[in-house]
Amino acid sequence: MTKHLTDFDKLMAFQRETEALAQIAGRLGWDQETMMPRGAAEQRGEEMSAIEGVLHARRTDGRLAEWLDRAEAPDPVAAAQLRLIRRSYARATKIPADLAQTLARVTSTAQGIWAAARAADKVADFLPTLAEVIALKREEAAALAQGGDLYDALMDDYEPGATAAVISAMFDRMRPRLVRLRAAVLEAAQPPKLNHRFGQDGQMRFARDLALAFGYDFDRGRLDLAVHPFSSGSGNDARITTRVVETDPFNCFYSTIHEVGHACYELGIDPDYLLTPLGNGVSMGVHESQSRIYENQLGRSPAFTGWMFRQMLDRFGDFGVASPEEFARIVNSVQPGFIRTEADEVHYNLHVMMRFDLERALIKGDLQVPDLEAAWNDRFLADFGVAVDRPAHGLLQDVHWSCGLFGYFPTYTLGNVYAGCLHQALRADIPTLDDQLAKGDTSAATGWLREKVQRHGGLHEPRAVISLACGFEPTEAPLLDYLDAKFGALYGL
Fold first, then answer.
1. Of 134, 113, 109, 111, nearest to 125 (Cα)?
2. Which listed residue (259, 295, 345, 373) is catalytic?
3. Which of 197, 203, 207, 426 has the fewest CB atoms within 10 Å, i.e. the most exposed one?
């Protein structure tokens, strides 16, 4: 006997195919960043445009409105599925199909142009393409905002419910304490710098072992090299990348741990949510909370770095560091460097705040693309006290704007804020955490995060995920208190 399909059943069957196609599009993006031959860039742009056309048509299909109107949710999980599909449909139907396809094509080819300009240190090679991307994103924002704030409309794609005004106010509260802490640390005696070469093969072997130590499942993922480390995919296929600098092994090791945090979030979601709207991380802020707590509160803790120090001695021999305590200070060295992804915990959020202000000005039209490099360099000198020495260390360092990811940057600091809250709650629940981390055992911490955050996927709204996990509303205070305590102890402040 054939089962009668309800409108909810029909909706979810349709959505499952849409989610599967979106995963295919994501895999094309992963391939472009890792293995695609450079000569295929223009063709890949057409491929991305074609699949985006299919996805946009599905996301705006008139049957969705009919099913959503008639569907009844049998339980809270189903109600959450309907909420997310309604949000996606409302958003997609505001964007013209030709604009969606053009954005997919232009941002796909822009990534290759950005990478070539970055390698050549030639900003002028990238600016015309960036101007085209920004014009398209402003057009998209206008369609979404429908008279409202353009930047808020873009940010909503990454952190539903957040607004630039709220984020800006939070940044204003955070900046004074970060600047005070930075000044105190930079006045203290600084740890020595590494003066040793660590071969690529050895770094990649240890990076793989670090991924395993943090619970990454290589049966459902893989580790590759890329220009800009990233995580891609969800469900049973969540891949990560890293990069290698032979004189700076922490670049590789901590970008690996960071991306493992992202991937483990996706891999930890309830398998019943596979290929549904709930089967992905709920927001980039919550996503970043996982990568940052893995990387920093766990991976850079003195307890874990003590284990890491012994591992590196066994693998690389004497590399000029005298003790676990000195190693912990080197790992947590505070310096006003150029590169956001390599920034210490004290400087990192200042990098994000700068980008937030610049991209808001670009989207609003207060800053024009030809003036962007000068604006970047002036702001960097003012915020960090160092003059940008080359474009690859300045405007060209991040891939985000070439991909059209305007509104994404503030979620990095929001993720740090969420991570601070989660770390406070985690420490309260697992008082012996340092004893375990000192053995290289992260399972209690990662298991807690999987249970409290990751398994829920998109079931709850972003802030609710954090408040339910922690037992209190998220605020920046736990992060700032953690930074003061950690760096105060490391630097004897």
1. 113
2. 259
3. 197
What residue type is 448 in one-letter code? Answer: W
Could you please report the per-residue DSSP string of 175-211? HHHHHHHHHHHHHSPPPPPP-----HHHHHHHHHHHH
Confidence of residue 227 (pLDDT cuts 50, 70, 90): confident
If one counts every other C-beta atom within 10 angstroms of the C-beta of residue 427, the result is 15
**Quick one: which of 139, 143, 145, 110 has its CA closest to 125?**
110
Domain range for 190: 164-491
Read off the pTM: 0.95
- Average confidence (pLDDT) over 295-324: 97
Structure tokens at 242: 């890293």
Question: Which has the closest alpha carbon to 154: 141, 167, 136, 168?
Answer: 141
Phi, psi angles (nearest 5°) of residue 234 = -160, -170
- Is 259 tagged catalytic? yes
pLDDT of 1 over the 60 cut: no
Q: Which of helix, strand or coil describes residue 146?
A: coil
Domain boundary among 148, 174, 206: 148
375-431 pLDDT, tens digit per residue, is 999 999 999 999 999 999 999 999 999 999 999 999 999 999 999 999 999 999 999
Confidence of residue 336 (pLDDT cuts 50, 70, 90): very high
Mean per-residue pLDDT, 129-135: 98
Angle at the Cα of 75 (from 73 to 79), degrees rounded to 5? Answer: 50
Q: What end-to-end distance do the CA atoms of the chain give, in Å?
A: 74
How far apart are alpha carbons 284 and 262 in whole angstroms? 10
Please, are residues 329 and 490 in contact by the beta-carbon 8 Å criterion?
yes
* Whether residue 59 sits in one domain with residue 109: yes
Mean predicted lDDT score pLDDT of the chain: 96
Res 401: pLDDT: 97
CB atoms < 10 A from the CB of 176, how many? Answer: 10
Do 381 and 232 fall within a single domain? Answer: yes
Report d(CA 268, CA 180) in Å as an integer.
38
CA distance 27 to 20: 11
For residue 237, list its beta bridge partners: 234
SS3 232: strand
Question: 157 in a domain, yes or no?
Answer: no
Residue 150's pLDDT is 98
Tokens representing residue 208 in the block:
């793989």
Of 309, 302, 303, nearest to 253 (Cα)? 309
- In Å, how far from its chain's centre is CA 120? 26
Residue 153 falls within a domain, yes or no?
A: no
Quote the CA–CA distance of 324 and 298 in Å, as a whole number. Answer: 16
- What pLDDT is recorded for position 341? 85
Same-domain pairing of 258 and 384: yes
Share of the chain above pLDDT 70, in %: 99
